[in-house]
Fold this sequence. Notes:
The chain is mainly α. The chain folds into three domains: 16-211, MFS general substrate transporter like domains (Growth Hormone, Chain: A, Up-down Bundle), CATH 1.20.1250; 214-267, no CATH class; 272-493, Up-down Bundle (Growth Hormone, Chain: A), CATH 1.20.1250.20. 78% of the residues lie in helices and 0% in strands. The protein has 16 helices and no strands. The chain has helices at residues 6-54, 63-86, 88-107, 112-140, 145-175, 180-183, 185-199, 215-233, 235-238, 243-265, 279-308, 314-342, 344-362, 372-397, 406-434, 445-477. Residues 1-14 and 481-493 have low confidence and may be disordered.
Amino acid sequence: MRFRSKKDVKKTDKDVIDKRHRTYILALLCTAFFMVVTDSTTVFTAIPSIESSLGFAAGDVQWVITAYTLTFGCLLLLGGRAADILGRRRLFMFGVGLFVLSSLFCGFAWTDKVLIVARMIQGISGAMMIPAALSILMITFKEGTERNKALGVWGALGGIGATSGLLIGGLITEWFGWEWIFFINVPVGLAVFALSFLLLHESRGVRETRRTFDVAGAITITIALFLLVYAISETPMAGLLGMQTIGLLLISGALVLLFIYIESRSQAPLVPLGIFRSKTLVGGNFVCIAAFMSVDGMLFTFTMYAQRILGYSAVQFALTMMIMTVISIVGVSVGQRFVSRIGVQKVAAFGMVMLGIGCMTLTMVPFESSSFMIILLGLLMFGFGMGAAFVASQIAALTGVAEQDSGLASGIVETSGSIGSPLGVSLLAAIAISHTGYIPDDADQQVQLLALHEGYQFAFGVAAGFALLGLLASLIFLGQPRKEKTENTDVSS
Length: 493
């Protein structure tokens, strides 16, 4: 029998304590992520109550959602780089504090304009929190199996938060009032803020010793992303080929080209262009965009389809979506395990195939017929594919990134999601609505419902097409797992 020396015991105890500490850090970061994701979806079920309570003008209530989406989406890249330069814990805690304050203002909003401004501030705070949190996760867990498991938990809680927010929002609004969907963030946020002092240590990009900031690049890319997200969000109203949409996209594209020029000349660029030498990072972000287009586009379409065509109540819909959430957690768990065994490419490709099959299954739901089993089968395949695709795309986009650029890489992948989500929602919404344009206003209700049914099913087919794009991106860009050059190369060059 071999007895451990005193030195061995101390080393073992330290390893246990470190592992326990990392687990606490992961729980803290995922709680903050869950709070932000849940907040973004609870609002959907509360919109009718908010509209009547604050007296929104016709069509203006959408800004309760758009105000958040715009500020969150256009500042993620800036937030990620700021975390590298200014300090990850500092930016995370500042974001949490600002999120708590803005949630209070949302709940106490006395006019529609106050609520919209408060939602914009919520978006700003979320853009600080999420990239900083993901960056802290990256430097806390070693690349490989350990980090893959952590990202699996992160992704699973994101999926749970997105769907459970619909159920939570409906129940809170019905029992306590819409104000409490915002007030509930306050105790959670304060707990996260307090525990951050105890669990997190400060870190920043080790090579950003001068902490310089690329002001010109920051302004250019922020405006470019703002115009891009706004143009996409307004597509259902302005039209895909409308002058507003085309004009905003052209201006956004021109600003992106200007941004690339600025970064190539800057001594301390906001986004060192060398980071895009990583084929895996580029591929992971392409897969992420396609996955969000398919997932969020399908979920938005299915929300309308379930309530308008199938006649589901808000609670029935939320319970149905919880089934998909559970299977998506299984998809995340299986996906992160198999990434280490068969490679990120195969897992991402499999996830995209399952997404596509799930969407195509929903196109087979007959009109005016009991078809829950078809819907269940489609949602189960879709949910499993969603979990696998999301975890694989995140692992790919964050693999081989040097520590000093972890915040930047986190901001890039979150920005990809923020572009893919409104793009998928807007395109599928416009497609579904276009199928009713030829129906006269005085047509029989059944005729109108049939047109909507066909429009939604066509949109499900397009969502499957988005998944096909993600499959192609995974096959083209994601090869076998390997160490990328960015891990040991100064990407600022």
